[in-house]
Amino acid sequence: MLVLLGLVVAAVVLLHAASIALRAMREPLRTGPFSGGLEPEEHALSRFHVRWYPVTMIFLAFDMEMLFMYPWTRVVSAVGTSAVVEMFLFLGILLAGVGYAWREGAFRWS
User: Can you give the C-alpha Rg of the chain in angstroms?
Assistant: First the structure.
């Protein structure tokens, strides 16, 4: 057991020493033209503004809708009326979510 523990400790020390010895020297990031060659107004790795997060959540809601609707189209003829009722219930819930987002101002851009 002590031999195995010694091998593990030696391997960790050896890997750490190799990573220090083979480390590449990094240069600081420079901001150059991006987005079609325009001079950047802010750094390319800056954070997104908080107004993008509601838009992202709405996109994910519609993305989940499509994820649910594609398999539904394959089984709707076999399942019948209950599948149609289920889909309209799902779309109604999604529409209620869009109405809530609209009421809260997620679509206002100013």
Answer: 27
